[in-house]
């Protein structure tokens, strides 16, 4: 069902209940990745892309089609409308713009993007130290506090696939650190989670690719053609590399630490 139009998302089924979508560069150079996870009681959409115009990026049509496809394959799930929860890796515009396209969908809850709204929806008893679990129906997702790039950032861990959905926090791209203390605490929190997980952590998938396949070489912001980009998945041990890179920082605005698979940038 993907590839009908040049602006349609690139759809990859990661398993029978998990979809990776990428907004194409033709519709927005940020080309963010989105994820749709199906449970027996509801689906979870992580992020909505950079565009609030269905004609430019047909998010609503695509999500409806994917839900219909999954429900056809899972006829025992008969709740109608099948609930959809729309949550976010963080509140930056290129990950939440498509919220507007889904807000009026029947059975749909769009989680707010302030820290208070994220904390309230998932029920964090303390923030950001606590990890909470969120049940999609025979499928549990752990929600880990993740501020540092952005104040309301979270990381989702899907026990079924073993994927940590790391948003703009850890990805093959520039890691823009807004609050160094919070960011370091988030990486340490993710390492603790990885080392004592509720299910094996297989890989990390973030929200962008900005690195080329050449180690340490990124594409500049605004690049539309990335013919030789690095693969998206990162091994769990990348978290140790990120922590080590933070140790090299002096905390000067604009400072960059270049690693093979990512570049840490201290945000101005
Ligand atoms: Zn961001």
From TrEMBL:
Q: Name one GO molecular function term.
A: hydrolase activity
- This protein's source sits in the domain of life called Bacteria
- Keyword terms, alphabetized: Hydrolase
- Secreted found in the keyword field: no
Name the Pfam families for this protein.
Lactamase_B
Per its UniProt record, what InterPro entries does this chain match?
A: Metallo-B-lactamas, NDM-1-like, RibonucZ/Hydroxyglut_hydro
- Residue ranges of the Metallo-beta-lactamase domain? 31-208
* The keyword DNA-binding belongs to this UniProt entry's keyword annotation: no
Cross-referenced PANTHER family = ACYL-COENZYME A THIOESTERASE MBLAC2 (PTHR42951:SF4), METALLO-BETA-LACTAMASE DOMAIN-CONTAINING (PTHR42951)
Q: What is this protein called?
A: Glyoxylase-like metal-dependent hydrolase (Beta-lactamase superfamily II)
Native species of this protein?
Leifsonia soli
Lineage here is: Bacteria, Bacillati, Actinomycetota, Actinomycetes, Micrococcales
């Amino acid at each position: 069902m993907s590839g009908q139009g040049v602006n349609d998302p690139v759809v990859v089924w990661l398993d029978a209940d998990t979809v990776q979508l990428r907004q194409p560069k033709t519709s927005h150079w940020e080309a963010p990745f989105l994820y749709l996870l199906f449970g027996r009681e509801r689906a979870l959409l992580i992020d909505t892309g950079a565009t609030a115009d269905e004609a430019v990026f047909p998010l609503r049509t695509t999500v409806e089609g994917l839900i219909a496809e999954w429900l056809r394959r899972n006829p025992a799930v008969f709740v109608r409308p099948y609930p959809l929860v729309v949550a976010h890796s963080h509140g930056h515009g290129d990950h939440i713009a498509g919220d507007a396209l889904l807000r009026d969908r029947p059975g749909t809850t769009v989680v707010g993007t302030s820290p208070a709204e994220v904390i309230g929806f998932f029920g964090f008893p303390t923030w950001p130290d606590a990890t909470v679990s969120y049940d999609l129906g025979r499928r549990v997702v752990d929600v880990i506090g993740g501020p540092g790039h952005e104040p309301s950032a979270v990381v989702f861990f899907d026990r079924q696939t073993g994927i940590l959905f790391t948003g703009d926090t850890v990805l093959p791209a520039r890691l823009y650190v807004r609050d160094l203390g919070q960011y370091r605490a988030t990486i340490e929190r993710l390492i603790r989670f990885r080392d004592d997980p509720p299910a094996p952590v297989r890989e990390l998938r973030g929200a962008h690719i900005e690195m080329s396949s050449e180690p340490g070489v990124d594409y500049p912001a605004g690049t539309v053609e990335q013919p030789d980009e690095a693969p998206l998945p990162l091994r769990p041990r990348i978290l140790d590399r990120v922590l080590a890179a933070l140790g090299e920082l002096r905390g000067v605005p604009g400072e960059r630490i270049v690693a093979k698979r990512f570049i840490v940038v201290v945000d101005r």
